[in-house]
Amino acid sequence: MFVFSARFHIFLPTDSLKGKRGIVKSIIARARQNFNVAAAEVDLQDVHGETVIAFVTVGENRSRVRHLLERLEEWIAEERPDVEIVASLIEEC
């Protein structure tokens, strides 16, 4: 079994925590549904226009698991053109 995690530092188009919460919840819920990953906001919870979201997945094929998280990053960029992924880190745990 291979465990991979991804951390995405994202700029958000909002100036309120309420607006941020809606965007983050939407990204997490749709990623869980579409990619079957575990996800959580892991940093910058009190900063209005930024967040760090982490995703984790497990699989038997190292390259497939890594590719899934790479596709997730692409999907966020395509589905949410209003947000900007400014940094990403995908690593094997």
Automatic annotation (TrEMBL):
<dbReference type="InterPro" id="IPR036746">
    <property type="entry name" value="TT1725-like_sf"/>
</dbReference>
<dbReference type="InterPro" id="IPR007546">
    <property type="entry name" value="DUF503"/>
</dbReference>
<dbReference type="Pfam" id="PF04456">
    <property type="entry name" value="DUF503"/>
</dbReference>
<protein>
    <recommendedName>
        <fullName>DUF503 domain-containing protein</fullName>
    </recommendedName>
</protein>
